[in-house]
Design a protein that fits this description.
Layout: E1 5-18, E2 21-34, E3 38-42, H1 49-57, E4 64-73, E5 76-77, H2 83-92, E6 94-97, H3 111-122, H4 127-140, H5 146-151, H6 159-171, E7 177-181, H7 189-205, E8 209-214, H8 217-223, E9 226-231, E10 234-240, H9 241-246, H10 251-280
Parallel strand pairs: 3-8, 3-9, 6-7, 7-8
Antiparallel strand pairs: 1-2, 1-4, 4-5, 9-10
Helix pairs in contact: 3-4, 4-6, 6-7
Length: about 280
């Protein structure tokens, strides 16, 4: 049987040093993601989600360090690589999508120039080949008129278009692993749906493993095959997304689901109030 595992994390522990002492930010974290699979990590701010992502990328802050465990990407151990080796892995095998794409793009360069420079860095693309690949990536993200988008500057695009451009850029070098840290938080509902559809297309392609981090259970439910629920650096529940969200076993998971239902009710109430207000005019 062929091993389709892309990312394998076992018994990961991360400590953070501060003036108050050492805090265990992540404890005994284990998971596996295969090709074409999406693993969601959900939990409140400070639960260790982003710290987990940074450890995989080898970009932990100076105050944080891995104390135990292993991180393997397609069989390669990452925890003991040199900085130069880490840079090579990040350049060739891992891509990152952040919460705010405006901070990821250079505002002084067009989208096209940033695509072309990235592609030429990753491979032996001619300018023409890089341009063709850039347009193909934007088309895959269902962006209208890719050629026009490439001529635009980041500030000329909406948040949703910019985030989809960021995902397209992240996938342009065909990474083994895509890490998406709160990719929909800054978006309205319409743009959020466009971005979620982009992740569905990544799944359908079946080549890239995705680690999707969010505090929004709705995002995880929409695209993740499996989910990890974290609280204070620990896994409190994990399993298939359908099983965990339909039959939560841990009280914290139930609280997250209740909070989501309450938020949905609030939106419905506000919408109903707006309709009634219009009808009274």
């Amino acid at each position: 049987m062929i091993d389709q595992s892309v990312l394998d994390v076992q018994e990961l522990q991360i400590a953070v040093a501060s003036e108050r002492g050492v805090v265990q930010a992540v404890q005994d974290l284990s998971f596996n993601i295969g090709k074409g699979q999406v693993l969601g990590i959900v939990g409140e701010s400070g639960c260790g989600k982003s710290m987990t992502c940074m450890s995989i990328l080898g970009l932990l802050p100076d105050s944080a360090y891995v104390t135990r465990g292993r991180i393997r990407l397609k069989g390669q151990e990452l925890t003991d690589l040199s900085p130069r080796e880490r840079n090579h892995v990040r350049r060739e095998k891992i891509s990152l999508v952040l919460q705010n794409p405006m901070t990821a793009f250079n505002p002084l360069l067009t989208i096209g120039r940033q695509f072309i420079e990235t592609l030429k860095l990753h491979g032996s693309y001619s300018r023409k080949q890089a341009l063709e690949r850039s347009m193909a990536c934007l088309a895959e993200m269902n962006l209208p008129e890719p050629e026009r988008v490439l001529r635009q500057y980041p500030y000329e695009l909406s948040g949703g278009m910019l985030q989809r451009s960021m995902i397209g850029l992240a996938l342009s070098n065909k990474p083994a692993l895509l890490i998406a840290d709160e990719p929909t938080t800054a978006l309205d509902s319409g743009n959020r749906d466009h971005v979620l559809n982009a992740f569905r297309r990544i799944k359908a392609d079946g080549e890239t493993a995705v680690l999707l981090v969010s505090h929004d259970i709705g995002v995880i439910e929409a695209v993740a095959d499996s989910v990890i629920v974290m609280k204070q650096g620990k896994i409190v529940e994990n399993g298939s997304t359908a099983d965990v969200l339909k039959n939560p076993a841990h009280e914290y998971t139930k609280l997250l689901l209740d909070a989501r239902l309450m938020a949905g009710s609030s939106h419905e109430d506000r919408g109903r109030e707006r309709v009634e207000a219009v009808q009274l005019r």
